[in-house]
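hi support,

uploading two proteins for the ticket. first:
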Amino acid sequence: MNINPVESAELLNQIKKDNDYYKSIIENNSFYIIKTDLEGRYTYLNPFFCHMLTVKSEDWIGRESLELVVAEDHQICFETVEKCFSASNETHWVILRKPLPNGSVISTQWEFKMMKDENDNPVEIVCIGHDITPLIMKQQELQALVDITSAQNKQLVNFTYIISHNIRSHVANIIGIIDLNDTDNEEDRAMTWSLIKRSAKSLDATIYNLSDIITIQSNTNLPTQTLNLKDEIQLTVESFEVLIRDANATINYNFNNQAELTTNTAYFDSIVLNLFTNAIKYKSPERDLDIDISFYKKDNYDVLLFKDNGVGIDLDTHGEMIFGMYKTFHGNLDAKGLGLFIIKTQIEAMGGKIEVESKLNQFTSFKVYFKQD
């Protein structure tokens, strides 16, 4: 078909108009549009991309595109480009973070597409993206709310355990004292009433400390205070003095009387109470119970080492589930499998951790790590 010069000029003019139109769309669109060669070097950056990232197109043509991607996202960018080569007829999506000159970072979602020539040979990669920073921030806010709710639920579970387990121990101790009061000996009766008063005061202190946790609302930080370590432990010991005496237990404090620990009082008392009751429950029938308590600092932790000479635990068999809920290991009918679970959940709620060592019929030691700022 022959085209006369007039028609040819009109066709070229229309092509130019079309090119100008599409170029205008690309350059004035509120989407990021960039192109790279097959080695990942910029060949085109649209004005909106340059404006949002505060860069000049002429400064970046020929430079590595990864320079405008945060280092942590380089690998996923590589992987997306590889997909463009391996599945060149498909569109591939990726989220990349872009650094801004002011030091902040924006989150962007991109569509990568391999472009080919008339012979179906790859020639360049076109990337179209948009800012999703507000969406990411909303997701982070939602996740923060989920984390807060989870932390509050954990605190509520811990609070429930303290109520059901620890206060019951105080009550059991008082009942034991009352049973001892069934005597006509005035001296014994006076002593038991003294023990009841002491236990009642200890119970009152536990309830008072728990009120600190009840007052926590949206704040997930547990209230803390600095305690004299020995005084606080002895208060707990006094709360079940009868059980200590019945077990013929000796408590050895291997630390300075002035040692202090900053922690949540209710959780600390609960942890110590559970360590003691656990040692008493699993004392060896072959010897009197000895409990050694040490205290030292390690890294960013204050460490409470609690060691007894009881029946021990077979860690080879039970090590992986020793801190599990409702897990028991000795066939003790009184065991509920809550004590160690409570300790672990409470110390972890405070940012700490717990470790155990044990040998059957020799000893069990617990290292409780209290996180310090």
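and the second one:
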Amino acid sequence: MSAAAIPGRGRPGSAAGRWSRRIRFYLPAILVFVGGIVLWELVIRAANVSQFILPRPSGILDALRENWVGTRFPLFVSAVQTLKEALGGLLIGTVAGVLVAFAIARWVTARNVLLPVAIAVNAIPLIALAPLINAWFGLLNEMSKMVMAAVLVVFPVMANVTRGLVQVEPGALELMRSYAASEWTILRKVRVPNALPFFFTAMKIATTLALIGAVVGEYYGGQNKVLGRIIVESAAGLRFETTWAAIVLVAIAGISLYVIAVLAERVVIPWATTLEAERG
């Protein structure tokens, strides 16, 4: 019996077919990543580049293993603390951004007052805000880093959710109003479902921005056992393998948060991800 005749094997709609498409989709990126790491190692060794300029991936891996726990630069403990600050800022910024978006979408006066303020705050360089926020909330207070992260998160969440609440199909609104639906019902049945894909798009951006905000806040002082301080102090001490190890952990944390946002989107609004896959 041929493979095509076996039920559920290799057909486009089967589990095997879906896994095959996923493997074909992700395999090139995985091969490029692994190939880049191997090429990096080989070039550094062949050119005898100093570790001061650029460490080898194997050296970075050794620094990760040596400094994971119980050293002057405990990477695991520091990564947990930095991630805690980033998640706190993500939560604060997301709640604030959603509330502002609902206010802007509902009331013209709120739109005229809050939108220019949000744009102005988003235009301020984070480096200029970091020392001020640390002074306001305390240099050693983790809340200062959360606020730093929240500042970066608010605007993309607000902008995307506002767009989702406002840009609704006119036909859907006319249909709801023809049934004498209240504004609350229209919001719950039409506007919020329409805004959910926009919200998760914002979350994919905000997860990485929250981590950036937390690390930048740590550059300007704070607890010693955070990734931002390890990056600064290890670089100052010429321990660049440890510096890169901390940077790698920041990247891994950012990718992990992004993947969680993608998985949450698929769970909450599977219909939107299915439509997007069909269009692609």
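thanks. also noticed: The chain has two domains: 3-47, 57-279.
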